Amino acid sequence: MNVLELSEQEIVRRQSLQELRKLGIEPYPAAEFPVNAYSIDIKSEFVEGEQREVTIAGRLMSRRVMGKASFAEIQDSRGRIQVYVTRDDICPGDDKELYNTVFKKLLDIGDFVGIKGFVFKTQMGEISIHAQQITLLSKSIKPLPIVKYKDGVAYDKFDDPEQRYRQRYVDLAVNEGIKETFEKRATVLRTMRRFFDEAGYTEVETPTLQSIPGGASARPFVTHYNALNVDMYMRIATELYLKRLIVGGFEGVYEIGKNFRNEGMDRFHNPEFTCMELYVQYKDYNWMMSFTERLLEQICTAVNGSPEVQVGETIISFKAPFRRLPILEAIKEKTGFDLYGKSEEEIRNIAVNELKMVTIDQSFGKGKLIDEIFGEFCEETFVQPTFITDYPVEMSPLTKKHRSMPGLTERFELMVNGKELANAYSELNDPIDQEERFIEQMRLADNGDDEAMIIDQDFLRALQYGMPPTSGIGIGIDRLVMLMTGKEYIQEVMLFPQMKPESKIPQSSIKEWAEIGVPENWVYVLRKAGFNLIQNIKDEKAQGLQQKLGEINKKYKLEYEKPSLDTIQKWIETAVSRN
């Protein structure tokens, strides 16, 4: 990187880096630093009168120099603590350079330092560390956006959502509460795994690249497998592989992993997301509802200390039991229309002419029509956990038909805070019925439904060997964490959500500048002066441009040979002729 592409502070920090090396201090030492204490523990374990010796390490987050003594604040992986630094304590001999030069001038906010010293309480009552040794562990050459306050106004806040998600490492370093969200996410996953493991179920891994995108209705990402010379799909679900394992004899299997759906992005959706799927033999969807209630109540209690969590202004209770409501009853309750027994055309007529829905497409089959009606009129109304049950067979190509209600299936979706959190079935294990359902999905695909399922012949073959009665469930981990942490955007609970490509300032290339006669070193000077595009210089006067370039050359001590007025005039004339 050319020095002129750096900010003023970045240049100063790199100069400090070189000064440290001249003093014989390695800014990035390799040796282990033996940390034996952490900020929060030091404070909680403090005993008045006890001179406890500690060794901590972390980022330098603030510094107040007061002559021969200073206060600093160190942020480690668990919190922050004040450090008291005196010149004569860290420089007991005649050489005071470590304090006067290194600590006061060459260390910067954001640097990682190690501190050895003892714990004490200041006259202001703040538990602190009295430093006896300071070691530079890693130099920060890019300034952190530390919030500063003046007259009650905050400056340099790092709160732009796009910046925060794109540079999560900075977000975690400077914004309070961000790390806590992801620690809670880890608690969700840890509690879920423990719950399944204690039930005797086995965590497994299935392929991410699949020859057929099965197990859900969604548009897949397509890639090419060079070694096999075939197109492959990023998985949209783990379902069909996990059920193969039930066929193979596992009692219960689960997987927590990434799925990929080539669809929209919004506050509730990310194309790459984390999902948990669980399948247990000899169970049905009624058992799975009770199991899910216990699971979510335990997770909420582990994360928040109680089965209740506040999301916005609403208190959501995961205390079992949850309400159970058939989907057609929910639609009747919210719209007044009873869709049970209605044909595809009758439902389309109700949606278009009675409910005045403008999202209805001619390619929609019966299941898709019902799903659209439920989504528009019902879904958002279910705030407290509610099991929506007994979906029509057209909506559920992998689900067992209802044992007592023709045309319906033994399926539920768990709605919480107006969104689907979980989807579960009494799994279809009749291979002939399954094949007929797949064929119907292909009919929908032929009619233009690009989310319809593809027939998985190997899965059908597995079912023909026999799959025991099984219940399965999928839970969206990202949405679950949103609920457990009270976050409104899925990006807040994903460490690195997918983002649009970062926008860049348009610039003429080095090659393009060379075509009008500008040497590479002067291209960076021109850019520093604000001339990013060749056409930017066409209205300049040669003498004025020469002066601007000369000022930058002098300021940054570049010692470049100054181009003559005739040379600069030729640059300008050539730039004009190119337009």
TrEMBL record:
| EC number(s) on file | 6.1.1.6
Q: Does the keyword Phosphoprotein apply?
A: no
Q: Which NCBIfam families match?
A: lysS_bact, PRK00484.1
Q: State the name under which the record lists this protein.
A: Lysine--tRNA ligase
- Where exactly are the transmembrane stretches of this chain? none
Query: Could you say which residues bind Mg(2+) 1 here?
Result: 413, 420
**Subcellular location(s) of the protein:** Cytoplasm
Keywords, A to Z, come to: Aminoacyl-tRNA synthetase, ATP-binding, Cytoplasm, Ligase, Magnesium, Metal-binding, Nucleotide-binding, Protein biosynthesis
Name the chemical reaction catalysed here: tRNA(Lys) + L-lysine + ATP = L-lysyl-tRNA(Lys) + AMP + diphosphate
Q: Where is the Aminoacyl-transfer RNA synthetases class-II family profile domain positioned along the sequence? A: 188-501
Q: Which family is this sequence assigned to?
A: Belongs to the class-II aminoacyl-tRNA synthetase family.
Where the protein is mainly located, per its record? cytoplasm
Q: Which residues bind Mg(2+) 2?
A: 420
What molecular function terms (GO) are annotated for this protein?
ATP binding; lysine-tRNA ligase activity; magnesium ion binding; tRNA binding
> Which proteins does it associate with, and in what oligomeric form?
Homodimer.
Q: GO CC: one term? A: cytosol
| Cofactor(s) demanded | Mg(2+)
Explain how, and how many, cofactor molecules are bound.
Binds 3 Mg(2+) ions per subunit.
Q: Which Pfam families match?
A: tRNA-synt_2, tRNA_anti-codon
Q: Which organism is it from?
A: Prevotella micans F0438
Leading EC class: ligase
Any one GO biological process: lysyl-tRNA aminoacylation
Q: Which InterPro entries does this chain map to? A: Aa-tRNA-synt_II, aa-tRNA-synth_II, aa-tRNA-synth_II/BPL/LPL, Lys-tRNA-ligase_II, Lys-tRNA-ligase_II_N, Lys-tRNA-synth_II_C, NA-bd_OB-fold, NA-bd_OB_tRNA
